[in-house]
Amino acid sequence: MSRRTLYQSAERVAPRVLGARLVSEVGGERVVVRLTEVEAYGGAGEDPGSHAYLGKTPRNATMFGPPGHAYVYFTYGMHWCANIVTGPEGTASAVLLRAGEIVEGLDVARARRLSARVDRDLARGPARLTVALGLTGELDGVDLLDSTSPLRLEVARRPLPVVAITPRTGVGGAGAMTPWRFVSDDPTVSPYRAAVSRGRAAR
DNA sequence: CTCGAGATGGCCT
DNA sequence: GGCCATCTCGAGT
User: What is the mean pLDDT of residues A106-115?
Assistant: First the structure.
């Protein structure tokens, strides 16, 4: 694929990367996933569900950079999540990688995801996917289309068919309605969970 | 399968 | 101080 495709907005790019291969050679170990579920996030001032909504900050700076790079962030005090930056530089849209099927490096992925009881769960969920691939904040900003990068994206000539478009998992507030979660017909697609409110427990 | 709750810490106002 | 683009486990239907 050309970088040109990634210059479009995230909601246009998202369905096209279903079925794409994400190749990780982090730590000298090769693991490849075929993407089965993604979500689109918009830029500053346009998508209340996006990290970029309130403008550029140290954490989300990569989103404002050129398309085709990885935006990797830390959340919930323990998890990493990975995105593909899309759109022209400055627009800050991105595609969150929510799930995939391990197609190479099964042994490595299993060793990294000891809590997964079945292979289907190895990269079923955004934080599980980053663990299976060995991704951390060190990968933030890498060029996914550079053949020398430790993390690369190879988009399928024919994307997987989109069988469902739903609201985004875990996104609440004003961004909750936007149907920007794109799902293929595959058992590795993660279970949908609505945003949960974290009110302080009574007691 | 569904639901609920704890873990755990950075980010942003 | 409040809010997370989540995961895991246990217990219930």
Answer: 98
pLDDT (tens digit, 9 = 90+) per residue, A12-22?
999 999 999 99
Could you tell me the pTM of the whole model?
0.95
- Interface residues, strand C, Cβ cutoff 7 Å: A 39, 41, 49-52, 63, 71, 75-79, 81, 83, 94, 96, 113, 115-116, 121, 125-129, 168-173, 190, 195-196, 198
* Cα–Cα dist A67/A146, whole Å: 12
pLDDT at residue A191, as a whole number = 87
Banded model confidence at residue A197, pLDDT cuts 50, 70, 90:
low
> Residue with CA nearest B3 C1'?
A193
Q: Which nucleotides of B are covered by protein (CB under 7 A)?
A: 1-2, 5-13
Residue A52: partners with Cβ closer than 8 Å, 6 or more residues away: A41, A42, A43, A44, A60, A63, A64, A92, A93, A94
Q: List domains and CATH numbers for chain A.
A: 3-184 (3.10.300.10)
